[in-house]
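If your schedule permits, I should be very grateful for your opinion on a structural question. Kindly check, if you would, that the fold set down in the tokens agrees with what the sequence suggests. Thank you for your consideration; the sequence and its tokens are set out here:
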Amino acid sequence: MYVLLSGAKCNLGDFWIVERAVALLRALRPDRALEVVPGWEPLDEKSEALQSARAVLIPGGPGYQPGFHPEVYPLVPDLQRLPCPVVPIGVGWKGRGGRDRDVAAVRFSDASLAALRWMDERTEALGCRDPLTEQLLHRHGFANVEMVGCPVWYDLAHLGESVDGEAPIERIVFTPPESPLLADQAVAVAERVARLWPDAERIAAFHRGLATTGPWIGEADIAHHTGLSQRLASLGYRSIDVTGSPEKARFYADCSLHVGYRLHAHLDFASRRQRTLLLEEDGRGAGASLGLALEGIPAFLPRTWWRRVHRADPGVPDRIEARLHRERDTGFAAYTTLGPTLDVHFETMRRFLLRLP
């Protein structure tokens, strides 16, 4: 038995993480039953599932934060009371950007460091999803770290495949940003995409609230997304709310290209060897670009000692247009390594999961 900690509340990406992690474990560890529980709630120490578990698994998400334990993952107050190890798999970090100074700025709390050391002592390696997360853990003294990628990197039906860069661009998905600071930039990017492929069907997919409301979606989020939806409609984009369920986004498999800010839309497309271009809102995107060896474009200007305000980069729309022009003219030549890169990472993930208790 494995107990799998879910972070899925409303954001589509978190649901994808759980779905893909379950698929990986069922394919590679059919010898273990699975119990999925909310990772943001304390574990029930007396539950039958926990008492019979061989391990508690954390499948993904930006959990390597200063408050890793108990703020992000409450687990139990005294980890010594757990009857089994806790193993992070494709867990990442969440920093401002992808530079060394951004990684160096992250400091785990004392409680988080103690929890990570407890986990490190009870498993062969702490799994992480990208090179920046690996760097963060090394900086804090953890030598046994394995970069296995995010579970969403791996669609088992498409292992061994390559990107078809010559296929016509007939249906485009654009994913808007989480930050309202990027609203004007996002509309400008969407306009450039529409200009490049004026005859393609254009869809704006919202991963975290549009028509959907709930306790995890604030009024400010709805206002931000509604405003973007209206502005994108004037450019010929049809808005679809895909909040909270991978089923709502199955149509991604029938699309030709993704351009946008939502990391897990990018990863979902990449996992099926479809063309995708990520605008990096923060260190999560930067880490994925490094891990996949597929260049993304930072959405914000880097913060410096003279520019401390987080500000959208006004040059991004021009860079997006130039990049997409180049890819269109070369048959997306930069994507020829994506499939082999993912296959190599999958082998690392496979070995990691096979070594679990």
Q: What stands out?
A: The longest strand covers residues 55-61.
